[in-house]
Design brief:
This protein is an all-beta fold. Helices cover 0% and strands 13% of the residues. The mean pLDDT is 79.
Length: 78
């Protein structure tokens, strides 16, 4: 296994003529569109316990706002 994973195509133009950049690890240059970009590994995701969908919310929903009177005031009288 190599220390560097090579991208297959440019994320900007889709061309396959890429070269490693001298800017450091994970930096690449596209000769077709003259753009440079960097790839990096962010980490592993936590395993999901149920299926592949989004996780359910664990917090209670926010309370509904107080009703407003027709005059636009909050129901208090002077």
């Amino acid at each position: 296994m190599s220390g560097r994973a090579a991208p297959f195509y440019c994320p900007y133009c889709g061309d396959e003529d890429l070269r490693p950049s001298e800017e450091g690890h994970g930096a690449w240059e596209c000769t077709a569109c003259s753009r440079a970009f960097r790839l990096s590994f962010l980490g592993l995701l936590a395993p999901r316990t149920h299926g592949h969908g989004p996780q359910p919310a664990t917090e209670a929903p926010a309370p509904a706002p107080a009703p407003v009177s027709a005059s636009g005031e909050g129901g208090t009288t002077p």
